[in-house]
């Protein structure tokens, strides 16, 4: 996965370079070989060619790759502050060091779970249970000593017992993976958890234009202050 994605990013840059400079396309990687660029598929030069590339991930391999060859990393919603600080950030820094770049040349973007109502509680527990059941995400649970619970969730997922899975997500787990608070406390709680750690922040909540407008406007204003 990491090697193929690295190759793909390099191939994208090769295409962009050909379009921008007119140089012949000649990319020969481990997974991709690109040597033909017909005028029909060449959009030509653009005014702002320095296009940032972000990649997403859960584990350290993709975090290191992001730090080495991209401009940003999209942190998966299934994370805790501890996982972000102890696992992902060091991996990103390793990649940045390899590329000779500083942290301020790179963006970390987070989509955070938030629980401000009983409806959101069930939604988030269900999402956490689903992600925790994924074997390739096991490192997140194991960091907190919840590997055995992750194994049980994987077993329930294999049996299709989705309705039973949220019940294995304890209040401690919920509080580790989500910001749990009253709606009016959410801006401050988000700042406490992510302030100084990330550059961009979004919420893993349904967004429907025209619904809860006051909530979203208030949240945006409070986070900007």
Report what the structure shows.
This protein has helices at 2-21, 60-69, 81-99, 118-132, 138-143, 147-158, 171-177, 186-194, 213-224; strands spanning 27-28, 33-34, 54-57, 72-75, 107-115, 178-180, 200-203. It has 225 residues and is an alpha/beta fold. It folds into 2 domains: 1-45, no CATH class; 52-206 and 220-224, TIM Barrel (Alpha-Beta Barrel), CATH 3.20.20. Strands 3, 4, 5, 6 and 7 form a 5-stranded parallel β-sheet that branches. α2 links the parallel β3 (54-57) and β4 (72-75). α1 (2-21) runs parallel beside α2 (60-69) and α2 (60-69) packs across α3. The protein is globular. The relative contact order is 0.11.
For this entry, give a set of tags.
single chain; 9 helices; TIM Barrel; two-stranded antiparallel ribbon; five-stranded parallel sheet; 225 residues; alpha/beta
Q: Which blocks of ≥5 consecutive residues have pLDDT under 50?
A: none
CATH topology-level fold name of the largest domain: TIM Barrel
- What is the count of β-strands? 7
* Major beta sheet summary: 5 strands, parallel
Radius of gyration equals 21 Å
**CATH architectural category of the largest domain:** Alpha-Beta Barrel
Number of domains: 2
**CATH superfamily (homologous) name of the largest domain:** Luciferase-like domain
């Amino acid at each position: 996965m990491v090697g193929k994605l690295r190759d793909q990013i390099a191939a994208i840059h090769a295409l962009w370079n050909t379009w921008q400079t007119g140089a012949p396309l000649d990319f020969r990687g481990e997974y991709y070989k690109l040597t033909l660029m017909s005028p029909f598929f060449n959009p030509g030069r653009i005014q702002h060619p320095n296009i940032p590339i972000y990649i997403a991930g859960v584990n350290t391999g993709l975090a290191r790759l992001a730090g080495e060859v991209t401009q940003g990393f999209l942190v998966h919603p299934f994370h805790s502050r501890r996982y972000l600080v102890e696992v992902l950030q060091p991996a990103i820094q390793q990649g940045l060091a390899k590329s000779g770049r500083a942290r301020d040349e790179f963006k970390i973007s987070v989509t955070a779970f938030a629980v401000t109502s009983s409806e959101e509680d069930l939604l988030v527990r269900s999402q956490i249970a689903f992600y925790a059941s994924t074997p390739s995400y096991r490192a997140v649970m194991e960091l907190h000593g919840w590997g055995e619970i992750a194994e049980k969730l994987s077993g329930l997922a294999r049996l299709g017992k989705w309705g039973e899975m949220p019940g294995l997500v304890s209040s401690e787990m919920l509080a580790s993976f989500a910001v749990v608070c009253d709606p009016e406390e959410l801006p401050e709680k988000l700042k406490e958890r992510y302030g100084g750690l990330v550059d961009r922040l979004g919420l893993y909540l349904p967004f429907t234009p025209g619904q809860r407008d006051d909530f979203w406007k208030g949240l945006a204003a409070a986070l900007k202050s």
